[in-house]
Amino acid sequence: MSSSEAIPQCLHKYLGKPDPRVKEWFLLNSPINLIIIYSVYFTFLICGSKFMKNKNPLGLRKILVAYNFFQIVFSAYICKEICVSAYSLQHSLICTPLNTANNLSTLRLAKAFWIYYLSKAIDLIDTMFFVLRKKESQLTFLHIYHHTSMLFNWYIGVLYVPGGQATVSVGLNSFVHVIMYTYYMLSAMGPQVKKYLWWKKYLTQLQMIQFVLLIVHLVIGYRKGCHKPPWLVYFTVTYLFTMVFLFLKYYMHTYQIFYGGKKPAGVDTKAGGDTRHANKIK
């Protein structure tokens, strides 16, 4: 049995059958796609860092501005599709079981989930920019863990539950990404806009509030019996707690909380600094 057959069978054995509406869609039709993406990602991360070691960092300012603008528009589109689909399906913010009907409204929502999953693959480009710009301090465990885990998490999520209670997660995270990439775009424009980036601290707070709200939302839905399969709730809540811990640790270090006013070594607290390694969940 080939790996392309063995991996799906293993997933189906422990997680159940994938949603038949989406299982043949691009990048969902085989876990081999994930393996290829991860292979390219880590190869570029390792080899690219070595290649750039003795070279000058690339500026890429115009490219970064264009990239972040694209991410703003893309995230706004996903958020809009989630809101319109949820409204047409009369979703409840508290409890919405997965609707497996095969009609235009449910397929539109499933497509919005799929596009959101594709955005997690696009987000990996962030790391490539760090490598090319020689921003080694940004290539933290939080950055790499978050980017790689989000892609895997939403591969599983969209393949098995493209809708239902997870709709709030996708909509809220897409909205936060609009704000987040707006900050990144302004930051990429250079020092002339630095004075407008005073709200960096509140962006990190927004991320942590998002995680807590999603945990509460998932737990309430679980207690009301809205989640099927229940394993997805356990997995997601556990993952969100790891993100709360990592972001809170970053926040305390960056803003010198519990450090007696001393700046920890290796932490950039400048208002215009690029905090993409922390200010990110998708």
TrEMBL record:
Family matches, as InterPro entries: ELO_fam
Catalytic activity, as annotated: a very-long-chain acyl-CoA + malonyl-CoA + H(+) = a very-long-chain 3-oxoacyl-CoA + CO2 + CoA
EC primary class: transferase
Membrane topology designation: Multi-pass membrane protein
Pfam annotation, one family: ELO
Any one Gene Ontology molecular-function term assigned to this protein's record: fatty acid elongase activity
Main location: membrane
EC numbers: 2.3.1.199
Biological processes annotated in GO: fatty acid elongation, monounsaturated fatty acid; fatty acid elongation, polyunsaturated fatty acid; fatty acid elongation, saturated fatty acid; sphingolipid biosynthetic process; very long-chain fatty acid biosynthetic process
A GO CC term assigned to this protein in UniProt: endoplasmic reticulum membrane
Keywords: Fatty acid biosynthesis, Fatty acid metabolism, Lipid biosynthesis, Lipid metabolism, Membrane, Transferase, Transmembrane, Transmembrane helix
Compartmental location: Membrane
Spans through the membrane: 25-47, 113-132, 202-220, 232-252
Lineage top rank: taxon: Eukaryota
Record has Transferase as a keyword: yes
Family: Belongs to the ELO family.
Protein name: Elongation of very long chain fatty acids protein
Species of origin: Aquatica leii
